[in-house]
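Q: Here's a chain of 306 amino acids. Please give me its 3D structure as tokens.
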Amino acid sequence: MSISTKPTVVGIAADACAGKSGFAAGLASVFGPQRAVVVCLDDYRRFTRLERQEARYSRIHPDVYYLDIMAQHLALLREGQAILRPLYNRTNGVFERSIYQEPCEIIIAEGLQSFATPELRSIFDLKIFLEPDEALKTQWKLTRDVDVRQRAEADVRTEMKHWHADSEAFIEPQRKWADLVVRLAAASGKGKSAAVERVSLILRPTLPRPNLTELFSADHAGIKISLDRDMGIPVDRLDIPVTAPDAAYLEVQKALWGQIAKKREDVKTAGLGVIIGPRGESQVSSALVIAQLLTALEALAAGAGQ
């Protein structure tokens, strides 16, 4: 595949069961399969599942992954070269045939260790950290492993407790490197009954970005941008409640598409905003659609500033 411009590389980092794959897929759908590709960095593992368990590593620990090969492959894609990327089967815990991956205009790399090293961080034009409330991560983990993979709930909860220390040590510190933090706040409910109540975007002053003041200056039923502080620095914070009227969501989506596609009437939401509901069902969150559209706009602005 020949591309006329240097690819824009977007990195997404987050804890296990934090929605990385779904957010990346939604972001890719904004651009379409001809322009964007998702690379799962969690496939760059040193071990099969059995080997990892015998070595007594959690899958969150950075020693489980080939961080240097991750960086090498992303650098090659950024330079317009193809790679052979690994493919890990999450059902049986073994590796499958590698995938021949050609570069695209937009490369979206998601994983647990996306910002773990200076080499990795230097490749990304835009760095995103996903931060769902603990109740949501628990619900998504239980839904996937208990309902889908038919594991015992007690075993899954024990595993999550063992992961907690590695998450604090290796995942949460990556947050400070993000240009954009996506928070998902949970409504009342615990375990498998938790649901998303609000989506917030923390926009740090680390990159040139489009002017959002005009877009969010009007009152869109609680969808608003304001000044805040995050980790000691001033930031813009966009709050998007999940209870706003459909008309408010559509107005904001149209405005964002107007800047992304230059066609105000072209509002496409297929593949966007997909989230796991409190009963394990797939739902479409209009608040998350707006978050993904705004992230796409940020990616375009970051790429233009290369």
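Q: Can you summarize the key feature?
A: The chain has one domain: 8-304.
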